[in-house]
Input
Amino acid sequence: NVVFDTGSSDIWIPLSSCSDCGSTHNRFNPNISTSYKASTQALSSSFTIDYGSGQVIGLKATDTITLQIHNSESVLNVTNTFIGQVTHEDTFISTFHMDGVCGLAFSGLSSVTKPSLIETIFDSYPQLNKSFALYLNSNPKDDVSHPSLLSIGSYDLSIVGINARFLYTPVVRYRSELTYWAVSMTAFKVSFMPGQAPNAWIDDQFSLSLCTYR
Output
């Protein structure tokens, strides 16, 4: 079980031999994957990823990622995708409900998964519309009729509501490359005090709004 994260780009899961990973986390056994390949570049086979909630350390490999298409028997097979096999999770991350992370941002943010999963999907399946959509149900236990949903190559605004519509805005580049799903804000206020409009990241895993103080 992985969390789909628009605020990061790497894919990682606990390795079967990880003794520092959460006791409830499912682990990846490369010996039972027919498409698994360990990294052959010794100098670049290890990685460290820092999150606001802690750090994970591990080894790089490649494998095939298979995604089931919603309401269909079809699948998307993304071959030779770089993944992280985690051998250490910081204490806080080891308590998370999810086993690992599947990043949905750009390659400019990646430590492991280059090119990123989203970029590889659209390169491998050029017939797909270059878009993805996330619907997050705030009450999944009681509202089972509208489960949270990740849709790649399409979207269904009727899930959101009859008057739902998209607002389009350009993605902002950092260091001349695409990293986060970042947009330029036009204005914001804190306690009714106006501030200088910054760029903002669209991160589905972050529940706070933060800005720098000057």
